[in-house]
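Hi X.,

You mentioned you wanted examples for the new student's onboarding notes, showing what a folding record looks like when two proteins sit in one file. Here is a clean example. The first protein comes first, with its sequence line followed by its structure tokens.
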Amino acid sequence: MATGRRAEKMEETRAALIRAGRRAFAGKGYAAAAMDELTAEAGLTRGALYHHFGDKKGLLQAVIAQIDAEMLARTAQLRDAAATPWLGFLAEGLGYIEMALDPEIQRIMLLDGPAVLGDPSRWPNQSACLRTSTAMVEALVADGVMAPVDAEAAARLINGAALNAALWIAASDDPPATLARAAEAFRRMAEGFLAPGQPRG
């Protein structure tokens, strides 16, 4: 019983640190977020942060993992609400790009994340996303919706285009205008994979 309560307490502490880190990183940016301030806001010590995440960079990784899971859930909803599998596939990519307008995603995932953690295409979450996209391309090719193509290659190109579009939007002086340009180009690029005679999205 004590072990169960201890594990529960540790999870509560971890969650509190992630909440505090997320607020600090979104509001001030990673560089300006002081560890003493964010741990004090959570009612914890710097030692708790070190114990659970190692350092501030480790906390950023945990915050990004949480936001990424939320983004995946949002794009999955868009996919599932679409009228056809192809439109669902397209909606996922466009939905990801459009989330670059969200201030929290913009700052944490697309600006500070790459600056601190390096190339986002190499983050662990991207591997899972690539596997899902590859499976979707395989299914669309099997159904004759997409032209015969190497599924992994197509998934890498489409996912890479969505990621780079989001990074471009986040760094833009006019994100909404950049989104309109990026979304149109992404749609046209993705439609190039359709089999002859298939309707456009």
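Then the second protein repeats the pattern, sequence line and then tokens:
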Amino acid sequence: MHQVVKQVHNILEFEKPIIELENKITEFNNFAKENNVDLDNEIDILYKKLETMKKEVYEKLNPSEKVKIARLQERPTSLDYINKLISDFIEFHGDRLYGDDSSIVGGIGKFEGIPVTVIGHQKGKDTKENIKRNFGMPHPEGYRKALRLMKQAEKFKRPIITFIDTPGAYCGLGAEERGQGEAIAVNLIEMSKLRTPIIAIVIGEGGSGGALAIGVADRVAMLENSIYSVISPEGLSSILWKDSSLAQKAADIMKLTAQDVLSLNIIDGIIKESLGGAHKDVDFTAYNIKEYLLNELKLIMKLDTLELLDKRYEKVRRIGVWG
């Protein structure tokens, strides 16, 4: 007999009918088991209705709903994907200038037998870890740590994989005093001329310069329900309409979904998630990331260094060109 496993996660408004039906199926299963009653046909009907409902809801999400999925605390983080995709991973710490920033993780390992350097924004799974990770908002030392690892990758001719998931760079006083803008700018310049392949994947939020600082790459892809924007919907609505409560309206006009960003030729591809979001089936999403990385690495690792740099330069210069 079918079994519904209840998932413990934040229930979004548009998910409520789905959750209610899943709970109803669970009740039917428990009743049938406890009373030794055959309800297979009834449960099959409910399952078919559930699958139809999921497709109707999850395949027609509007931008503001995708923003909510991209920000879910249950959404897989950089370390979740690193643990599933990178073998023999060794994490490195510190920028050799100020300290370590745990909102950026990075190190070396092997991806399908290929030695690689992996860097990603890291959010927490609960309040305590989010405080430790500064909610995925890096300080300048985080970006300098990332650059240190990227320069090391260039030295040893290792491809670089980055996972982007940040609301933006931290804008606190200490971060500004330590050169937040300069750290981001240097990363943009240095990444544009690194003599090794780079692939960047937006796995959640791609927020402004905080995302770009590890996002200059030969290939940039986004997960299906991730977002990429110059500012948050709340920030845009506060500036334009002096009202942060209009964030949903802002999200609808910002062109921040993966589908919008692909149509603007800012990214190179969209990686499919499990139905309802990557948190519903991490293995499915990780497998699709693996396939994308394998296919693209094969192509860009064949290029000689000058061709690689020329193509990356052309790619960056095309962003924002109108018409």
